[in-house]
Amino acid sequence: MTPMTDNPFRTAEHVVGSYFTDRADEVDMVVRAMTGRGRLLVYGPRRMGKSSILAVSAVRVRSGGGVVIHADLATAASLVEVADRLLAAVSAVEPWHGRLVEWARTLSPVVTLGFDELGNPRLGVGLEARPRGGEAERALLERVLDRVESVSARESSPVVVVLDEFQRLSELGGEGAEWLLRNRMQENRATSFVCAGSKESLIQAMLQPKRAFYAFFEKLHVGAMAPAHLARWIDERLTGSGVRARGVGAALVERVGPRTQDVVQAARTLWFQAALSGRADGDAVETAIAEIVRNDDTGLRRTWEYLTPLQQRLLRAVAAGAVELHAQETRQRFELGPSSSVTTALDALTGRSILVREAGSTRFENPFFREWVRRETG
Ligand SMILES: Nc1ncnc2c1ncn2[C@@H]1O[C@H](COP(=O)(O)OP(=O)(O)OP(=O)(O)O)[C@@H](O)[C@H]1O
Ligand SMILES: [Mg+2]
Questions:
Q1: Which of 71, 205, 343, 345 gives a 20 to 30 Å CA spacing to 18?
Q2: What is the rounded distance in angstroms from the CA atom of residue 236 to the CA atom of residue 19?
Q3: Are 268 and 256 in contact (CB under 8 A)?
Q4: Cβ–ligand 1 contact at 199 (below 6 Å)
Q5: pLDDT for the residue 3
Q6: Is the distance from the beta carbon of residue 20 to the nearest atom of ligand 1 less than 6 Å?
Q7: Residue ID of nearest Cα to ligand 1 atom 13
């Protein structure tokens, strides 16, 4: 028998519509920046829901006639690719289709007009005239950004450039690229810019005095969703799709929170398991977590194997719930050696984002890795 409805939870990629909940204040703030020629930076830890907030805001702005050019720079591997992603985002803006020829003509020969896999027009950086060298790459990026600006000056409705994972620009092009973007943003007041990023240390560095974005942005920090809200929403979504549940959301948040994606991923897995019987309880939560840990075994095991034995023992301590990692009792129990070694191992593990330190306590970044370590310890 197949389940009656679709899974009410979605993961991977941003979510919109009924798959999205809460964040009303955040969406309001982003929409205000988008429609008001703002310069907004949306930042915070990974997988809390930044991109979803941007996506829901963009839906709202588009429905009001605004044009949103959304480029995700997460996997761009060069400045040319950054320019290429912007061009792809421009190509996706329906009302501009008639103007793409003009774009290609103006930016020729570097930029060409072709078609994507679906047969839609797609501006891109041509292979033959591809710019080489930092200066030529920056010049291209500047021209593309300027072109968005020049178009926006002629529009009465807002034109918004969204750069998700914008810190890639800095990783790829250094401070030169940071200044380029800042100057383009400053020069053109007609376009709204919303930048987002999750590499907090990198972003904090970009905001320091003497760096390009010092005191430049209005800022929106996206943290964890209110646990009680998320818990209630999960129960409602389960019940609404035919799975009777009470307290399941709360149990999920408690076990795998606070990161939004982890909780929603566990809920999604749980729904697949519970849809047939039409009910879910505390055991279902544990079964769902066990399934995720099993599915992720290959990747988690590989992460584990790359660690030193001391780092592995330290992870065991954290997974077992040890709080005072430097305390003599903890070091003895988990064979961690002198306090200085604990410090070195902690730095290495936080540097690789396996552990995160928050308000004096240390936890796994990935709750399913914590569960994996617990299970392996027996
Ligand atoms: N407001 C929300 N309502 C319901 N689910 C959400 C919400 N926000 C995020 N999620 C869940 O978390 C997942 C990750 O969200 P999103 O990609 O927006 O986060 P992010 O902070 O941009 O992550 P990354 O750091 O990987 O860029 C989504 O696929 C969805 O499962
Ligand atoms: Mg994101």
A1: 71
A2: 12
A3: no
A4: no
A5: 47
A6: yes
A7: 261
Q: Whose atoms come closest to the Cα of 198: which ligand?
A: 1
Question: By C-alpha distance, which of 185, 238, 231, 230 is closest to 212?
Answer: 185
- For residue range 190-223, list pLDDT tens digits in order: 899 999 998 888 899 999 999 999 999 999 999 9
CA gap 30, 42 in Å, rounded: 8
Cα 72 to middle of ligand 1, angstroms: 14
DSSP state of 19: G
Q: How far apart, in whole angstroms, are the C-alpha atoms of residue 325 and residue 332?
A: 10
In this structure, which ligand is nearest to the CA of 267? Answer: 1
Instruction: In whole angstroms, give the CA distance from residue 223 to residue 134.
Output: 36
Average pLDDT over residues 108-126: 92
Torsion of CA 37, 41, 46, 49, to 10 degrees: -30
> What structural domains does the chain harbor?
23-221 (3.40.50.300), 227-295 (1.10.8), 298-377 (1.10.10.10)
Nearest CA to ligand 1 atom 4: 20
User: Cβ(114)–Cβ(149) under 8 Å?
Assistant: no
**Least confident window among 68-77, 88-97, 228-237, 322-331:** 88-97
pTM for the structure as a whole: 0.93
Gap between the Cα atoms of 346 and 280, Å rounded: 38
Strand partners, 163: 71, 195
Over the stretch 244-295, which tens digit does the pLDDT of each residue have?
998 999 999 999 989 999 999 999 999 999 999 999 998 999 999 999 999 9
- Name residue, tokens 């209630």: 232
Find out whether the beta carbon of 48 lies less than 6 Å from any atom of ligand 1: yes
Contact 370, 262 (CB under 8 A): no
